[in-house]
Structures are given as C-alpha cells and as structure tokens.
Amino acid sequence: MKVHNFSAGPCILPPEVLRKASGAVINFDDLNLSLIEISHRSKSFVAVMERAQSLVRELLKVPEGYSILFLQGGASLEFVMVPYNLMKKGGKAAYLDTGTWANKSIKEAKRFGEVDVVASAKDANYSYIPKDYTIPSDANYFHCTSNNTIFGVQMKAFPKTDVSMVCDMSSDIFSKRVDVSDFDLIYAGAQKNMGPAGATLVIVKDEVLGKSGRDIPAYLDYQTHISKDSMFNTPPVFPVYVSMLTLQWLKDNGGVSWIEQVNNKKAELMYNEIDRNPLFKGTAEVEDRSNMNACFLPIEEASQPEFDKMWKEAGISGINGHRSVGGYRASMYNALPLESVRTLVDVMKEFERTKG
Ligand SMILES: *Cc1c(COP(=O)(O)O)cnc(C)c1O
C-alpha cells in the first residue's frame, strides 16, 4: 500500500532522489565504488559539492558576495555559530521569539552577550507571529525563524530594517521565493526540504564576517569554511549528495516558483477542510498559518482513536501533533504530493460522515 508521509522531519524526499541515492551507495559515478567509500577530495565528489552549491545559488538567485556552505551540527550548531561570528564583544543582538526553535537560538546567543527579545508569541502558545515591534538600530543583527515547525505558523513577510538580518529557514527553505539580499545570513538543517539529516546549509554575506572581535575556534568560524570551499574537514558526503539530487529535482520540475504554487495548493486544500469540517479546528492564527505544517485539533477528544484508526488504514503516516500542541500536524514539505493531502482530506470528510 502507498504510504502518505506527513512526517515533520526528517521527512519525505522525492522517490526518484531516493532511487538515485541508493544506486550511488553501491556504485557511484561508474567508479564501481560507493559514494561513501571514496575520498571527498576525489574529482567525482568535488563535482558533487560544486554542483550542490551552484544549484542553491541558481534556485534562490543568491547574489554575488555571498558564500554557500554545507556544514555539520544541524541548525542547532548555527544557534551558536551565528552569535560567535556576528555578535561583537560587548555588543547585542535582537531576536524574535516565535517558538521552540527561536527559544533555543536565544538561549545560545545569551552566552555571548546581550539579547534583546523584541517580541514573543509565548502568551498565546506561539499560535501567531508578532508583528508590531521595533528592532533596536544598535543591534549587531536581528534573528528570526521563518517557519515555526512545531506550532505551524510562518512569517509571510520580513521586517524592513537596516539591521543585519539572520534567519533560520530550516523548515521552509526552497518552499517559496525569498529575496536573499534582504538577509546577511540564512541557515537551514537539510532534513526538511533538502535531504537527509547531517548537512546544514549556510548562505552568508562575506562582508559581515571577521568583525566580531572574538577568537573563534576554527570549525565554528564561517571564514574557515569559506576559505576552503566548504571542504575544511570531511564534509557530510552522503547528505550533500542527496541534497544535490533534491535540488536538481526541484530545478528540473520548474524551480522555486513552481513548488511555491504547488505548496500553496496543498495548503489551501488542507486549511479549507480544517475550516469547513465541524469536527476539527486549526490552532494557528489564520493569517500566519504555515504552508509547511498545518496543526489542528479534534473538537471531541473522545473521538480521536476512531479518527486515528481511519487515517492509519488509509496509509497516512506521521500526522500526530507535537507533544506541546497535541492533536495533529500535517507537514506538507516540497516532496509531499498533492494526492497525499487529498487522501487526508478525504479521510477527514469520511470521519465527518460516520459521525454525522
Ligand atoms: C527542525 C528545526 C531545527 C532543528 O534543526 P537540527 O538540524 O535538528 O538542529 C531548527 N530550527 C527549525 C525552524 C527547525 O524546523
């Protein structure tokens, strides 16, 4: 039976990417060697890294003056590297608190200096994106999280500010168009729209680096990686390869503007049903709803096991909500087909019929 994978992360990848990746594990580039048993300095792998970087540049229209890195440590290590590299000694940074991940980034930044939390949605269990706030002009940078994976809210616009902007785009990068020139640094763990866990994409404007006045350990210094073309040490070869394949898949199908339309359609279908069906209610503020993660609750908790049985029988997987929200979370990342959303919507309708 076909499985409809709504997992929040790691998550669904295009089937043809998985097929190619599994082939490369056995025989890569007709070398009769596995991708994961050859030198990362070999011609074949260097070509993979260069291709992955150029696809990022092309798909996101990254301007001149920015470097593209594939690092390790996940988005969680970027929570540390960002203040290490960008917060001046005795300086301060501004952060927008939109949920669990934003919170973790704030916690790490506080180890380096003053953190001004300009706004927080904690008062309403992070069900909305704060909009009226002032970014202090003396902040070294402003940090935000574009998509709140856990609570299902997404920034539909970014503030206009002269302060250097940094964004954690782990769960919506490559899902819609974004103007990279608005940001000095963007980072994203690979495992939501790009590839397997183990690689972290960093897009950074070169000129903002080297100014923190801190003695940064080599691995944690972005300049180290830039000077070595993202090959300072052994890169995560398999995650970089699979990310390259996923980006190629995206390009071949029409790129970011194509997937943005597909993602809009999926989200519309999903939220229309959540709003229409009297047995469910959405948890996020309507205008801030995420196109990637739709969170919803059953009106009657007692009927939950019945609904659970129905979606499991339909081949749906991974829609249990995060423990901090409860209910359900349907994650609709790039590789999730529209057909999977239709299947879930049909089950919700069927559930209504049986209860009606
Ligand atoms: C999943 C996620 C993270 C965590 O990333 P790791 O790579 O596991 O450290 C951070 N931020 C956001 C927005 C996420 O969705």
Mind explaining what this structure looks like?
The protein is of the alpha/beta class and 356 residues long. The protein folds into two domains: 15-253, Type I PLP-dependent aspartate aminotransferase-like (Major domain) (Aspartate Aminotransferase, domain 2); 254-355, Aspartate Aminotransferase, domain 1 (Alpha-Beta Complex), CATH 3.90.1150.10. Helices cover 35% and strands 17% of the residues. Pyridoxal-5'-phosphate (PLP) is lined by residues 9, 74-76, 101, 145, 149, 168, 170-171, 189, 192.
Helices, strands, pairings?
Layout: E1 4-5, H1 15-26, H2 43-59, E2 66-71, H3 74-86, E3 92-97, H4 100-109, E4 114-120, E5 142-145, E6 147-148, E7 153-154, E8 165-168, E9 185-189, E10 200-205, H5 222-227, H6 237-253, H7 255-276, E11 280-282, E12 293-298, H8 304-313, E13 316-317, E14 328-331, H9 338-355
Parallel strand pairs: 1-13, 3-4, 3-5, 5-8, 8-9
Antiparallel strand pairs: 2-10, 6-7, 9-10, 11-12, 12-14
Helix pairs in contact: 1-6, 2-6, 3-4, 6-7, 7-9, 8-9
Keywords:
single chain; 356 residues; alpha/beta; Aspartate Aminotransferase, domain 2; 2 domains; 7-stranded mixed β-sheet; 14 strands; 35% helix; globular; binds pyridoxal-5'-phosphate
CATH topology term of the largest domain: Aspartate Aminotransferase, domain 2
Low-confidence stretches: none
Treating each run of at least 4 consecutive H or I residues as one helix, how many helices? 9
Major pleated sheet: 7 strands, mixed
Return the CATH class of the largest domain: Alpha Beta
CATH architecture of the largest domain: 3-Layer(aba) Sandwich
State the strand order across the main sheet.
2-10-9-8-5-3-4
